[in-house]
Write a structure and sequence with these properties.
The protein has 185 residues and is an alpha/beta fold. The chain is built from 7 helices and 9 strands.
Length: 185
């Protein structure tokens, strides 16, 4: 198969029914195993988001929704869809009844603007788990990683938008988490 063919050929993609069944299988397995909650990560494709949110709600467990975004020029866009406005992903996510929403696996430079857009549509608790660096096949590139003190300053601004849960994703390490913990100290 040609790389990317499944993305471009609807015949090679699973049906929405199969995607929902897959999400149900994962969330139900977690519930049956005693999981405390469901964490939906990297939510960015509206169709898949709706199905993941539906399966999470059906599981009976509390669930959080972590959206992913990126910057294109000066605009925030959905992480995986070139040119897809992030506000449309937010609208789908907000309809999904998550207990907490926020940004994860989103570069530090896009996290603040994306959180501001999320706050326009979401009044509930928020989280931020940014990344730093970038992915290049086959692994994460630890290039231009934000300094812990600079991350702390960025996170201070996010807390001003209502972020209550902070963490780190790809490219961030223990010193970054220590810097974030200083905001709670």
């Amino acid at each position: 198969m040609v790389p990317g063919a499944a993305r471009d050929d609807p015949e090679l993609r699973p049906s929405p029914e199969q995607v929902l069944d897959n999400f149900r299988e994962v969330t139900y397995a977690g519930a049956e195993a005693g999981a405390d909650m469901v964490m939906l990560e990297m939510m960015s494709r509206p169709l898949h988001m709706k199905l993941a949110l539906q399966a999470a709600e059906e599981s009976g467990l509390p669930f959080w929704c972590g959206l992913s975004a990126r910057m294109e020029s000066a605009n925030v866009h959905s992480y995986v869809w070139e040119g897809f406005p992030f506000e449309e992903s937010i609208a789908v996510a907000v309809a999904g009844k998550a207990e907490v929403m926020g940004l994860m696996h989103t570069n530090v430079n896009a996290t603040g603007p994306a959180l501001a857009l999320l706050r326009e549509q979401w009044s509930g608790p928020m989280m931020a788990y940014p990344d730093s660096g970038f992915f290049k096949m086959p692994r994460w590139q630890f290039t231009d990683i934000i300094e812990p003190e600079d991350l702390e300053e960025e996170a201070r601004q996010w807390c001003g938008l209502g972020v209550q849960v902070l963490g780190g994703c790809c490219g961030l390490g223990l010193e970054h988490i220590r810097a974030l913990a200083r905001l709670r100290g």
